[in-house]
What we know:
Blueprint: H1 10-20, E1 25-30, E2 35-38, H2 40-46, H3 65-71, E3 77-82, E4 85-96, E5 99-109, H4 110-146, H5 152-183, E6 192-195, H6 196-213, E7 217-222, E8 226-229, H7 231-247, E9 254-260, E10 263-268, H8 275-278, H9 290-296, H10 302-312, E11 316-322, E12 326-332
Parallel strand pairs: 7-9
Antiparallel strand pairs: 1-2, 1-5, 3-4, 4-5, 6-8, 9-10, 10-12, 11-12
Helix pairs in contact: 4-5, 5-10, 6-7, 7-10
Amino acid sequence: MWGISLENKPSIFLYKQMMDNLLDGIVAIDLEGSVTYCNAVAQKMLGIDFCPVGIVLSELDVPNLVPFLSDARSGDKLNINYHSGTLQVTYQDLMQDGLRLGAMLMLSDIGQKQRAERIRREFTANVSHELKTPLTSISGYAEMIATGIAHEEDIVRFASRIQSESNRMLSLISDIIKLSELDEVGRSQHSEPTDLFAVAEECVEILKPTAILRGVTVQLFGDKTVVVGNRSLLQELIYNLLDNSIRYNRDNGWVKLRVTDKTIKIRDTGIGIAKKHQQHIFERFYRVDKSRSKETGGTGLGLAIVKHICEQHHANLELESSVGIGTTITITFP
């Protein structure tokens, strides 16, 4: 870091990789205030594409930072408004053998942490609510059977409801686990050349019984198109899109899935989504029509999973929808 070449030093290179993958930004400066190191996170927070070693920190034009450095002592903190959020800067002296070599600045995005904490609280509350509803139903029916309150002719119907609510819980838990896996920072996913059309064919076949049951015609168009990605996640993406189009369709409606030129386009004759809801439907547990979601058995997490998978594959996600006409979702891979 301090004038050490990274060439032929794999341990230093690995150390740099580790620093670049931290959640916080790190900037190191020498006694003259020149930058000796700046990790990728710090560059992103400061809105700069490249931070050359040797540049004077004042040239980066970070408001309030330079005056802070002139008076700061090790451990001091400062909150500065930068871009659209607030950065907390922590100053730490860099010492070696009792000599001060410079300083390290640790940058933390306070706004991002607050948003993450709010999302976590909302997610926990929603999960508790979503699990409580089927559990209450299962407990009630089971108690009626166990205590003999249920008539013999009702037992089969009650057992069927218990099974239905249990399946609903299993689907919810499965989606929660999937989202948790996608949320893990730095979690590596195995990537390989994957034919999206072949994956789409599998999803159509899996969901064929659901489509027939709901009276929805599903058509697949296109040809072989290969992208580099995680095959399991790509199958999850297409499955969730197709399942959603089938669930929220009208009687005798149709779904047309086209896969070509590294693009997935799915059109349906469903209920459509009003403009005011369109920016929210990829949020967790967001439902346009809660009664319809309960009727169809949706978990409210399918499109959130789709968004996460698109982000992991650097794919562009577009939505077009009109109430009573239908919805078109287009995903384009790089």
